[in-house]
Specification:
By secondary structure, the protein is mainly alpha-helical. The chain is 50% helix and 6% strand. The protein has one domain: Cytochrome p450 (Orthogonal Bundle). Strands 1-7-6 form a three-stranded antiparallel beta sheet. Strands 2-5 form a two-stranded antiparallel sheet. Helix 4 packs antiparallel against helix 6. Keywords: Heme, Iron, Metal-binding, Monooxygenase, Oxidoreductase. GO terms for molecular function: heme binding; iron ion binding; oxidoreductase activity, acting on paired donors, with incorporation or reduction of molecular oxygen, reduced flavin or flavoprotein as one donor, and incorporation of one atom of oxygen.
Length: 386
């Protein structure tokens, strides 16, 4: 996939992939409408729970992945569809495994390969769950090859297959089915591993801080949107505290503490440091986001750090807020993630108040290990505000 490509192959795959997704509505009104449709379904499911505990991450993940699935596959991840029913459960399992170890895990490559071959290890379990996703994508690619239209892209797979065919006789082509498989898996897992967990964290913060955070967001929703109209992405301009809460959760809960490896292509100097060609460089996102020289009380969840002094507007986002990484290889899903987090938070708090199950106090939410980037609290109560 794109994360493992370099040079022209990376440039062509990334530029083409983003162009296809934009043509399909990525970052535009059609994508927002799909999100709002999914939110209506989610609200109905939560209503149907009759104020009993609900599995937050599984519900949010299945909801948000439907938006991603429409872009990538042209269809939703329908839970009762035998082809797709286990996909969400396997994705949840993959995320739990992904976030259950220390911030930095150093071991020789031979040991990593050995672990991946053993079924009882974390690495082996991740490999099996990832294989389920790859098999699912291969099946979707085969379906698309059999049904592709002559000049109409239904989704990302259609667009990429068309480029593979267009360049099939070019020995230097950057477009291959193996890249399509990898790119699709990266986009799917990227969408699954960030926004759903961050929405989950936002709801936990609201449940733990009913007055300081939850009530303030609900006041903004009531004042700007009311109780009946669906919130829109445009509403963020008049809801600074809600949007600041989205920015703060991406600072406070870093999904990927250490960024993807980058390679230095030529000898470089940064300040007093000389970095020779070929050096591997990684962004310490967690270090930046918890640096007390950059953030006051960095271990605290405090949306007001993104507001002007009077609290009425968003301040300019500082350059050291790097939740979606840095440079040209930053996460292409930043826009989708921000739209989803804002709309899910605003809509759910418009309809419900969020409470801990049985009034039990929630654990410390501010821990720093990657174990804590995936919430251990799986259920919450949603009490109707109507």
């Amino acid at each position: 996939g794109m994360a493992n490509l370099n040079g022209e192959a990376w440039t062509e795959n990334r530029n083409f992939g983003l162009r296809v997704l934009r043509d399909l509505g990525f970052g535009k009104t059609p994508m927002e409408e799909n999100i709002k449709d999914e939110l209506l379904n989610l609200v109905n499911k939560i209503d149907g729970a009759k104020e009993r505990p609900v599995p937050v991450l599984e519900l949010i993940l299945s909801s948000t992945l439907n938006v991603t699935s429409l872009l990538l596959f042209g269809t939703k991840c329908v839970l009762d569809d035998p082809k797709r029913g286990n996909l969400v459960k396997h994705t949840v399992k993959f995320l739990e495994l992904l976030h259950c170890d220390s911030i930095i895990e150093s071991k020789p490559q031979w040991l990593s390969r050995l672990e991946a071959s053993l079924p009882f290890t974390r690495t082996g379990a991740m490999r099996r769950t990832r294989q389920v996703l790859l098999d699912f994508i291969r099946d979707r690619i085969k379906e698309h090859e059999d049904t592709i239209e002559a000049d109409f892209n239904r989704d990302f797979i259609d667009g990429y297959l068309r480029m593979v065919k267009k360049h099939q006789h070019d020995p230097h082509s950057a477009f291959h089915e193996r890249h399509l498989l990898g790119n699709t898996a990266e986009l799917f897992l990227g969408a699954a591993s960030n926004a759903p967990s961050l929405i989950h964290w936002l709801l936990l913060v609201c449940a733990q801080n009913p007055d300081r955070v939850q009530a303030r967001i609900q006041r903004e929703v009531d004042d700007v949107v009311g109780r009946h109209r669906q919130p829109t992405w445009e509403d963020r301009r008049a809801m600074p505290f809600t949007m600041a809460s989205v920015l703060e959760i991406t600072r406070w809960k870093v999904m990927i503490p250490i960024g993807m490896p980058r390679g230095v292509q030529e000898d470089t100097s940064i300040g007093e440091y000389f970095i020779p060609k070929g050096t591997m460089v990684l962004a310490n996102v967690m270090g930046v986001h918890r640096d007390p020289e950059l953030w006051e009380n960095p271990d605290d969840f405090d949306p007001t750090r993104f507001l002007t002094a009077d609290g009425t507007e968003l301040s300019k986002k500082p350059e050291y807020h790097i939740a979606f990484s840095l440079g040209k290889r930053n996460c292409p899903g930043e826009m989708l993630g921000n739209v989803q987090m804002f709309l899910y938070l605003a809509t759910l708090l418009q309809k419900f108040s969020v409470l801990p199950v049985d009034g039990r106090p929630l654990p410390n939410l501010g821990c720093l290990t990657t174990t804590c980037s995936h919430p251990s609290v799986k259920e919450l109560l949603f009490v109707s505000r109507q």
